[in-house]
## 1
Amino acid sequence: MFYDTLVQIYSSPDSTSYIKSLYADFQPYSKSILFVDGFQIDISNRIFCDPDTSINIDCYVVVENALYKIMDLIKWDEYFEVHLYKLKRQVQQ
């Protein structure tokens, strides 16, 4: 893994809720989450990064000027795998 992409972490989708920045491995990824009522979310990307207490499923991230919602967080022994949904409405920076 190459931690070569700047990732900005936010607590909400607006630019005033900035928490911190870190470097991660940003990759394309394809996965769908289907909810009971038939609603479907398509995961388009994921990041791999060092474990960090600032990252949780309530957060948003900005990667390459695009806003994503964290949909899933898998904690491995030495890193996090974070699944991202690209939001239609983007943050103003």
## 2
Amino acid sequence: MKIFIIPTSYPDDEFPVKDIFINEQAMALSKLGHTVTVLHVKKLPSKQIVSHIKSGIQRADDGFAIRYIKIIKTFLEDKFPLLNKNAFVNAMRELFVEAQKVQGVPDVLYAHFSCWAGYAATEISKEFNIPCVTMEHSGRLVQPGQSVSKTVINCVKKTVKESEEFLCVSPGLRASIRKIVPDAKNLSVITNMIDSRFEYRPRINKGKFVFLSIGRLVASKRFDQLIDAFVQAFDENENVELRIGGNGELKDKLENKIKLCNREKQIKLLGQLNRSVTLEEYIKCDCFVLPSTWETFGLVYREAMAVGRPIITTDHGGFDSNTWNDDCGYMIPVNDISALSDALKAVILNYDSFNGRDISKFCLSTC
């Protein structure tokens, strides 16, 4: 089958882990024998230096897929969604026209995220009479208290109604989509795949207990609460370490918080991790912990579980009764620092009760 993948964003040399799961899906489809082409509209904010914007369409051979790239500038995307949507859709159509000249007409368009890739895919689908499938991952559609613009809501409605199939990465996300489009009959749940590199690895005895946390350094991940809970749970002389991977707007604040707590020796900010280093960190850790307020799926939790590590998670919506059991670790309420502190201590005290191989098997059989 010839597949054109249409993502809202896609990893590249500049942003190597941006929506990496789309890249890994594309690679898996290629390994299954499909011919994969990626149409990559790369959005750069208006504050980006003008000289960084290259006009025209670029073509890259990623080995498993040919990628067509067009760079566009965005301007206050949250405040002017319609303006930015139109720019994205126009750029995506240009990429499609160029790609089909060389790659031929695809059998299916496979979009990731309704805004704006799904919207663009349905427009192309209608114009060129090619079936379209959309997979939704967007956390803004499930985040409690999140204000979603009318433009976004209309985009989701159109994408659901005009896609042959509309795939959600979790039951919670499907429930949110159903509230937006109550009469939708094409909603299915297909979870994000876990890369085959993330498989059971025995625990490494390091002489200290290592907690690992990975995510964008943004408010919804609650890294500030994790640091507070860690400080509350352990004194500065205990042989325990917290390693935090990721980058984001709160990096400086978190660094200052760690210094004020005098925990630089125990709490390490690792910066952005590539996939190989991420796997190494999972293997070296004893427990994965992330107190997110919400998740559509929660790939990092599942990658840690696949490696065989117990996790500490909040009840963020990314797990349900079929994908979670208490043999995998501890699930605590959102925004409960005391419960988080207790869980950090409990996982060390009760570590022998967790079977890493069983955690891995359970995760890989339910995801």
## 3
Amino acid sequence: MTKKFNVEYQPAQKNYWSGRKSNPDIGNQYWHQEVELLDINNIENTQIDIALIGYVCDEGVRRNLGRVGASQGPSAVRERLAKLPIHFETKKVADLGNIICIEEDMESCQQAFASSIVKLIKKGIFPIAIGGGHDMSYGHFLGIYNSVKDTDKKRIGIINFDAHFDLRPVEGKTNSGTPFNQILNEFENASYFAVGIQRQANTKELFDIAKNNNVNFAINYDCESSKEELDALKNRLKPFIDSCDHVYITIDMDGFSSAYAPGVSAPSPLGFTPYFVFKMLHFLLETNKVISCDIAELNPTLDRDNLTANLAAKLVDFVVMKLADTKKPT
């Protein structure tokens, strides 16, 4: 499937999935025992509900003058996820390996990634992608768009948990700071809500771009986990979600406070907490509109005691548990 693109594809690898053994008489207890390891080119006759896929690319971060290392994110998440106990029974989960950027050709990596997302969604498989830089979002959105563009439900809302708008104008080559600017300029059925925006991390120009593109956003000071503040944000999100046919969730790990996520290119002590994000994910997944999600910008080379990798793995685990628990609308 990826042969027509200037990328490498690596099917799922067993060496990322190891962990504690358990009594075989009581069945699988951990992720490493339960996850299926597959090649995305050979899934036609498989019955899976959720698929992990890696976007192994540092090029967008490098172009954006960030600290590279996010290309190691997918392997770090798998290694931490492998050791977690499973609490889902109704969904089959598979690892489909990595789309790998080569020769600094980020654009081909995005196109190949988009093609992979199309294949999964059209088979009724929920993608959970792991980056890589946030340039992944352009490819991810393109894949979602190409999956639904010929249907009567083609309005796609993006909800981005992030300290940054990533709305930078494209000057020369695209990068990890431009994906949502690209999307809003190229796709008329796209809308965007950024959650966790930090004023100290975004220029006035970026706030102006957000205003001119009717971008909704919540400042980081409004992203607390008290019931009052959560309810206020949910009330702001409800009309946005109602206006969409599908919701794409993307989580940039640098949106979290550096106390919880030091392993990112641009850490900040002013970010939100994991409790806030888990509660918001619970709310969003219950809408039954979420079509796909991803986690971006984990940089294991800058992590401390695997804190950020563990948090990213638990985000994946939570999404899977919630998908397994949520009833489809009748």
